[in-house]
Amino acid sequence: MDMTLKTQNVSFTVTRFSWERIYLFFDIQVNPACSPDSFPTFYAVDASGKAIAPCEVVSRSENSVRLRLNITNTGENRCFPNGTVQFWACMDGVPATVVTAQPGLSEEMDGISRVFLYESRHSVYTVSFSITDHNPPVLQMHTMAAAQKPVGAPLLPEKNPSPSRLVSIRRKGMRAVYGFFCRLYHHRREKHPGVLFMTEQGTSCNANQMAVCQRMQERGLQKDFEIMLSARPAASQHQPLKSWFSLLRKIAKSRYVFLDDHAPVFDWLKVDSGTCLIQLWHAGAGFKSAGYSRWGHSGCPAPQGCHRQYTYGIAGSRRIAPFFSEAWGISPEQVLPTGMPRMDKFLEPEHRAAVTASLLGRYPLCRNKKVILFAPTYRGKGRGDAHYPYEQIDFDKLYRLCSEDYVVLFKMHPWVHDPVPIPPAYRERMADVGDYPDINDLFYITDLLITDYSSNIFEFSLMGKPMLFFAFDEASYAVSRGFHRNYRETAPGKICRTFEEVLSAIAHGDFEQEKVEEYVQLHFDHTDSHASDRVIDWILLKNMPESLRQAQQNRQNNLKKMKALSFPPAGN
Hints:
Layout: E1 11-20, E2 23-31, E3 41-46, E4 51-61, E5 64-70, E6 83-91, E7 94-98, E8 100-101, H1 109-112, E9 114-118, E10 123-131, E11 139-147, H2 163-184, H3 186-191, E12 194-199, H4 207-218, E13 226-231, H5 241-253, E14 254-259, H6 265-268, E15 276-279, E16 312-314, H7 321-328, E17 335-336, H8 343-346, H9 349-362, E18 370-374, H10 395-402, E19 406-410, E20 430-432, H11 439-443, E21 448-451, H12 457-460, E22 467-470, H13 474-480, H14 487-490, E23 494-496, H15 499-508, H16 514-523, H17 531-540, H18 546-564
Helix pairs in contact: 2-5, 4-17
């Protein structure tokens, strides 16, 4: 096997592997040293000699380089396909040499392999490694997606179709109906594009969607676009046929579909090529892993699904765009730093004054007091078993600490249905405000937020007030749910492992508040009330900033260049 083209004399040898969630890192030794001006690019190359994914250079020096691969995204919003790849270096757009493996690396192969379960553990995606018997040995990565099959003797054919078979038949029919509607409304959609605000998570659209919808109407854009709404709890409840026909008709009429969360219908229904799917995600940026960030954990997505179809998603800043693109399995350039539309009203002084007065009327215990808002996320796998371990809270000591200075409001995650067990004698200083609809309103009267891994820190950080993080189960939460970034390095406040530490921090004013400003600088490109306008201008009116447009174009150009490369087939 000719592993090095004759025009090149540099070798690249993998010396170490490591993983971080869905990212695979390679540490590579370069011999002899390579000038930064002539440093190569690296690609994963399949058995036919076609490059299928670029490798990201994380760091480099003259004689070493660290590469990173996202195994859930080859650069085209899909996982690595079933098969084997080798890794090649390219010099000036010309294939130069295959990446080899340090001889002792074979002992690490089994330990570095990964198994990612999905679809309720009925399917699996595996990543494993081997080295060839060539001299020097070549590194190979093998990927495979597979579904659960019976073990043992073959089963007799079923007399009646299985539930999964019936679902497949129904979905095939729905796709046909959608195709019919697309043909029916094709010309109408060109002349008067539809804009659909859609959720499958409940009976009302979320705040981000309604903020954009209302702003479109304020700007008189209903004359240029057909504005439609669709809100169904289809993610958790069976929907009648009439509801399905209505939804499919609206999607077919739409040039733009704005979502607020995962929409299961798009796991199996591919939108027409003339339709843009945009994710107006409800959360700003917390710590919890979601989507492909927690691949292999319970509730993670399948290799292909709703998230992969997004044309765009939104975020608060360019620097946090990778958090969202990782979760959705798309490229960072597709995440637009518009800011959160629902925060437009949140940042208006008049709105803040009116809401503050209303809240003090509704919760008179807060008048002339410092307000502590206890607002953690839920524990459990999801909506069905969501709970919070109230035994972690020492209500007696918290009540005594409040004295005449503080009151505590408890706002649990909406999925936690059990009320906060506040002793009746303590209710002049403590209140369960779980029935209040918008936690953002409560931030106006809050002097200290106590949370854990929730994304509510995103909005609260703009108040410039302190936060405490009660992370009694940080280690177990990291294993079961996972973090998409280092929790201890990025939490904008003091982290407490015990409730005693929480009480001590409050008593001594020890909040590490300087971290709040650092968090704001990282997470917000804009701190104004024009996020809805940016969504409208950049996406609907196609007036995207040139820097963002150019980044997207560069990505497409780099993929085209990659596909034009031709490498020696493996084994030749």
